[in-house]
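input
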Amino acid sequence: MSQLAHEYQRFLEAGVALLMVSVDSIRRATELARTAFAPFPVLADRDADATVAFNVFENGIALPSTFVIDKAGTLRWSYIGQNPKDRPTIATMLDQARIVAGPSAAA
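output
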């Protein structure tokens, strides 16, 4: 999360909003956001409703996942990690977000 926080401005410049969903309690999600200095919302999904809905909850564990959702709410790109360290690079996330946002989004 700290790397996303560090690169947040690049996402804004691309016309993209970030938000993080954690399967932790509200208290723990708030603590994560504070310690990483997250400039974007960090939401708590303590009952795993969102992770189950996105099919990224396996054997009681939420898989690290990244989704690009367009303004209409349509899932346009996803990356589902196979383990806690398997995540897309910031460059990959930015590339995919820019494709979805389109050329005029950052203008």
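quick obs: DSSP finds five helices and six strands in the chain.
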